[in-house]
Amino acid sequence: MKIRKGRPAELPRLLELVEAAIADLEARQIHQWDADYPGPVLGDDLAEGTLYVQTDKGRIVGCFVLNREQEAECDARNWRDKNGNAWVLHRLCVHPAYRRQGIASGFLRFAEQITAEQGCTSIRLDVFAQNADACRLYERNGYENRGTVCLEPGHFHCFAFEKVLCRQP
């Protein structure tokens, strides 16, 4: 299985992946994604060239987005990397049939490698606070919880995570 940039023609398959992930999250009582997100933004991610996929025998088994767009609510975080070149990970998704096979950790290693090659000093992300599996994934991979972010006031709390890839001078 290889990680590569997604192609616009793959949007229908990506939407199927996200639908399967939403059903799995709902079955686990994690009300993180729905018909409004993330599906409708994937086309933009593909057009911008920021969406990556992993396939297995032609089937898309996971995806993630990597860019420099940070939610405004995260700007005021107490980031460790205050003056560096931070990139942001979004919409990491693995098909339920492929969970717990190291794909998500592989995505993180891949993201760290390609961004470091471009002078990135840290990777940031936000994760739904009720998604304990995702929080553990990031912690196991060296990401540090930098506090709570409320993306939808009153009901959508996330944790802001960061991994510093290199020390600044």
If you had to describe this structure to a student in words, what would you say it looks like?
The protein is an alpha+beta fold and 169 residues long. It has a single domain, classed as 3-Layer(aba) Sandwich (Aminopeptidase). The chain is 28% helix and 31% strand. It contains four helices and seven strands. A seven-stranded mixed β-sheet has the order 1-2-3-4-5-7-6, with helices on both faces.
Layout of helices and strands:
Blueprint lengths: L2 E3 L5 H17 L14 H7 L2 E6 L2 E9 L18 E9 L8 H15 L4 E7 L3 H9 L3 E9 L3 E9 L5
Parallel strand pairs: 4-5
Antiparallel strand pairs: 1-2, 2-3, 3-4, 5-7, 6-7
GO molecular function, one term: acyltransferase activity, transferring groups other than amino-acyl groups
InterPro entries: Acyl_CoA_acyltransferase, GNAT_dom, MshD_Acetyltransferase
Keywords: Transferase
Structural class: alpha+beta
Largest sheet: 7 strands, mixed
CATH topology category name: Aminopeptidase
CATH homologous superfamily annotation: Gcn5-related N-acetyltransferase (GNAT)
**CATH class (first level) name:** Alpha Beta
Order of helices and strands: EHHEEEHEHEE
Pfam families: Acetyltransf_1 (PF00583)
Protein name: GCN5-related N-acetyltransferase
InterPro entries: Acyl_CoA_acyltransferase, GNAT_dom, MshD_Acetyltransferase
GO molecular function: acyltransferase activity, transferring groups other than amino-acyl groups
Write a brief caption for the model.
The protein is an alpha+beta fold and 169 residues long. It has helices at residues 11-27, 42-48, 103-117, 132-140; strands spanning 3-5, 51-56, 59-67, 86-94, 122-128, 144-152, 156-164. It has a seven-stranded mixed beta sheet with strand order 1-2-3-4-5-7-6, with helices on both faces.
